[in-house]
Amino acid sequence: VRITLRQLLDHAGEHGYGVPAFNINNMEQGLAIMEAARACDAPVIIQASRGARAYANDIMLARMIDALAEIYPEIPLCMHQDHGNDEATCLTAIRHGFTSVMMDGSLMADAKTPASYDYNVDITARVAEMAHWVGASVEGELGVLGSLETGEAEAEDGHGAQGKLDHDQLVTDPDQAVDFVARTKVDALAIACGTSHGAYKFTRKPTGDILAMNVIEEIHARLPNVHLVMHGSSSVPQELQDIINAHGGAMPQTFGMPVEEIERGIRHGVRKVNIDTDCRMAMTGQFRRIARENPAEFDPRKFLKPAMDAMRALCIDRFARFGAAGQA
Ligand code: G3H
Ligand code: 13P
Ligand code: NA
Ligand code: ZN
């Protein structure tokens, strides 16, 4: 059954759990997420980036979500636009049946340049007003995702194209968060605490100097009823790096967001936990393994089925650890 982000996160808040939000680009990822949800009786957030919409086509994505809702009728399903960059992206998502949108006004519409606070408030409030007219939910973001180690935004996509960011820009300010939520009326607030997107978040297991979990606790203390969102929440497990590298891959050693830090966030108001990279790595590890172990194989299903199985296992683990299992 289709539900909004608001409905889903209100339930998560009441019962004190977190919901992983997994990214989708194709049928196999959709089936892996929903099979995992069915296996552990969990509610689901599926999200599509602008890149996913361009890759799969809006019509295809919309029909895939219809199909998943029909195949898994017992699972509460929220379809969410990940990192909408302007009004048009958010409104066309809703038009295609998404029940929730992220308006990421922490960056300008180029999705690279950090935006002013006034720009962020203005565009997010406008999208929230329009989305709420038609019953969709809105996630906003305050603070720019990026590395506290290097001062770079979006660590995976290059080297300081927009110059170094200040600590203030990379960690959400609790006072500003209070003002932002009041002025925009968002249903959920994504915060920045030192994580970034992609596989290369940290050069070592993160400690308090490079991962500002305390800011989540401060924001939750000020805004106890606001649903917080953690982006860049892949854990980049060592075993997935090892599978990829054991079968011809060449990923440099890296560290992600430890699951125990996410669990700590969930104890302090984090209700939506965005995960894409881990799912990509789970699938790619199997593509590489099959290609290595059976070089004569040429049926794509022989690659995709183990990849789906690996992604499903990853999703089951996150549903369980975030407390979403049994909550559908
Ligand atoms: O926000 C980042 C997500 O991992 C989506 O990535 O834009 O490559 O689809 P993408
Ligand atoms: P990861 O790259 O850590 O999986 O983060 C995904 C994300 O935040 C999508 O919005
Ligand atoms: Na999002
Ligand atoms: Zn994100």
How would you characterize the overall build of this protein?
Its EC number is 4.1.2.13. This is Fructose-1,6-bisphosphate aldolase. Catalyzes the aldol condensation of dihydroxyacetone phosphate (DHAP or glycerone-phosphate) with glyceraldehyde 3-phosphate (G3P) to form fructose 1,6-bisphosphate (FBP) in gluconeogenesis and the reverse reaction in glycolysis. One of its GO terms (biological process) is glycolytic process. The protein is of the alpha/beta class and 328 residues long. It has a single domain (5-321), classed as TIM Barrel (Alpha-Beta Barrel), CATH 3.20.20.70. The protein has 13 helices and 8 strands. It has helices at residues 5-15, 27-40, 50-56, 58-71, 87-95, 117-133, 167-170, 174-184, 213-222, 238-246, 259-266, 277-293, 300-321; strands at 19-23, 44-48, 77-84, 100-103, 137-142, 188-191, 227-230, 270-275. An 8-stranded parallel beta barrel has the order 1-2-3-4-5-6-7-8, surrounded by 9 helices. Helix 2 (27-40) crosses helix 13 (300-321) and helix 8 (174-184) packs across helix 9 (213-222). The longest helix is centred in the C-terminal third of the chain and has 22 residues, at 300-321. The protein is globular, with a radius of gyration of 19 Å. The model has no long low-confidence stretch (mean pLDDT 96). The structure holds glyceraldehyde-3-phosphate (G3H), 1,3-dihydroxyacetonephosphate, sodium ion and zinc ion (ZN). Zinc ion (ZN) binds at residues 83, 197, 231, 274.
